[in-house]
């Protein structure tokens, strides 16, 4: 009887199936989280010069391992998703004053001004002029975290609010921010120069903001006056080259494209009355039918073609991307320039990184920094699971700016010494 009630043994192949299933799950986890990827110092591209030697000596983060959180930090997608959804952890709330500037076309540009919370390391008056990423502004958590850290290191910070990005600021002309329009950023810089005649500038741009600040500096030599250096983080350099890669599904770029397009649609439609209203004097090429095309757009390129390019009268998307990209202006920048990208950034295709690599091989003032990990504006640090409030990116930008300030101070002191010696002779 007992023999009849005994459960028959399962065949050994069943255990093999369970083991195979567990192994498959572990393999997927390891692959998705990129756990086998090593940690290493960032790859650096630069010319052998006195400036580069000084930077390598003065900026430990350039030669030190960047160590992201162990469990998920080696995944560019998770780094990007955390930046996009959460911004930063335990983000501070720096206090600033909002400034308003009326532009020539009637647009109202705004930026937020934050005074330093400590004395700068060289004792001078230094202002960081900051341009955020696409549709971003001073209230974004990653901007607040960076500003707070910069303030504590003795920097005044001026942060541009992209035209139309702040939900509580109405448009006063039928125009929004675009991929490479430098008008609002230039107006902010001119305000800072006029209000603080002794201040020197450190120019910082994140993502789309990196394109804007580099284009601004390269547009005319006068824009580089009183500028100590420029830092661009996670930009793509050429929208014309990027448009093809942004329609590809590898690394989920097409999905990211859809998400960003959906966000842009919401922002544009929130200003539909100012942009498409009956009493609005629309840009020459902007028509009411473009509003209906906007509703069905599923990519940034469709939005740019149907709406954004028309704010500035471009005849085609190709012309818009060629004229608005900073790639054709980079060689005209003569101040120290640091370009930062992550190798695992899912938004910036590796083919676009040939642009900063080539530039750094031709110009002594350029350094290209390429860490293995970081995603798009992530660069979180931490031991195992939980990230630190301050990121590798925040620390690197301030460290580089400090080094350049010290470099310029040393040059000035050397010049003064040489002049004194010449006077004595």
Can you describe this structure in just a few lines?
It is an enzyme of class 3 (hydrolase). This protein has about 425 residues and is of the alpha/beta class.
Secondary structure topology:
Blueprint: H1 2-5, H2 12-32, E1 43-45, H3 50-58, H4 76-86, E2 97-102, E3 108-114, E4 126-131, H5 141-152, E5 156-161, H6 183-195, E6 200-206, H7 208-219, E7 227-233, H8 239-245, H9 253-270, H10 272-276, H11 289-296, H12 300-306, H13 317-324, E8 337-340, H14 354-362, E9 366-370, H15 392-424
Helix pairs in contact: 3-15
| Spatial sequence of strands, sheet with the most strands | 1-9-8-7-6-4-5-3-2
C-alpha Rg (nearest Å):
25 Å
Helix content: 40-55%
Number of strands: 9
Strand content: 5-15%
Taken from the alpha-carbon principal axes, the silhouette is globular
Describe this structure in words.
Residues 127-382 form the AB hydrolase-1 domain. It comes from Orycteropus afer afer. By secondary structure, the chain is of the alpha/beta class. Helix content is 42%, strand content 12%. It is built from 15 helices and nine strands. The protein has helices at 2-5, 12-32, 50-58, 76-86, 141-152, 183-195, 208-219, 239-245, 253-270, 272-276, 289-296, 300-306, 317-324, 354-362, 392-424; strands spanning 43-45, 97-102, 108-114, 126-131, 156-161, 200-206, 227-233, 337-340, 366-370. It has a nine-stranded mixed β-sheet with strand order 1-9-8-7-6-4-5-3-2, sandwiched between helices. Helix 5 links the parallel strand 4 and strand 5. Helix 3 (50-58) packs across helix 15 (392-424). It is globular. The model has no long low-confidence stretch (mean pLDDT 90).
């Amino acid at each position: 009887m007992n023999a009849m009630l005994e459960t028959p043994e399962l065949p050994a192949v069943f255990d093999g199936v369970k083991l195979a299933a567990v192994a498959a799950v572990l393999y997927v986890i390891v692959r998705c989280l990129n756990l086998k990827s090593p940690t290493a110092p960032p790859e650096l591209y630069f010319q052998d010069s006195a400036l580069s030697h000084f930077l390598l000596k003065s900026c430990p983060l350039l030669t030190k391992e960047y160590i992201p959180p162990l469990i998920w930090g080696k995944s560019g997608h998770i780094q990007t998703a955390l930046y996009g959804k959460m911004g930063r952890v335990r983000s501070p709330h720096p206090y600033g004053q909002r400034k308003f500037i009326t532009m020539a076309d009637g647009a109202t540009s705004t930026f937020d001004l934050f005074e330093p919370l400590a004395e700068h390391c060289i004792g001078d008056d230094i202002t960081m002029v900051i341009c955020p990423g696409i549709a971003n502004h001073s209230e974004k958590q990653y901007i607040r975290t960076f500003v707070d850290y910069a303030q504590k290191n003795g920097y005044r910070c001026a942060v541009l609010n992209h035209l139309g990005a702040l939900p509580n600021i109405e448009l006063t002309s039928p125009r929004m921010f675009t991929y490479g329009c430098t008008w609002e950023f230039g107006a902010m810089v001119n305000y800072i120069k006029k209000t603080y005649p002794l201040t020197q500038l450190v120019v910082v741009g994140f993502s789309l903001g990196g394109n804007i600040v580099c284009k601004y500096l390269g547009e005319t030599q006068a824009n580089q006056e009183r500028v100590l250096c420029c830092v661009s983080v996670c930009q793509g350099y050429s929208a014309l080259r990027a448009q093809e890669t942004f329609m590809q599904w590898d690394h989920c770029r097409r999905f990211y494209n859809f998400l960003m397009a959906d966000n842009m649609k919401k922002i544009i439609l929130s200003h539909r009355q100012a942009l498409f209203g009956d009493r609005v004097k629309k840009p020459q090429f902007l028509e009411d039918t473009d509003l209906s095309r906007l509703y069905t757009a599923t990519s940034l390129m469709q939005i740019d073609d149907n709406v954004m390019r028309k704010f500035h009268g471009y005849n085609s998307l190709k012309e818009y991307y060629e004229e608005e990209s900073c790639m054709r202006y980079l060689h005209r920048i003569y101040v120290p320039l640091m370009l930062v990208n992550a190798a695992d950034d899912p938004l910036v295709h590796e083919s676009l990184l040939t642009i900063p690599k080539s530039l750094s091989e031709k110009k002594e003032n350029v350094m290209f920094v390429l860490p293995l990990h970081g995603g798009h504006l992530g660069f979180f640090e931490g031991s195992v699971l939980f990230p630190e409030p301050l990121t590798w990116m925040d620390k690197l930008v301030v460290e580089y700016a400090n080094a350049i300030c010290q470099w310029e101070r040393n040059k000035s002191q050397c010049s003064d010494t040489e002049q004194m010696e010449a006077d004595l002779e």
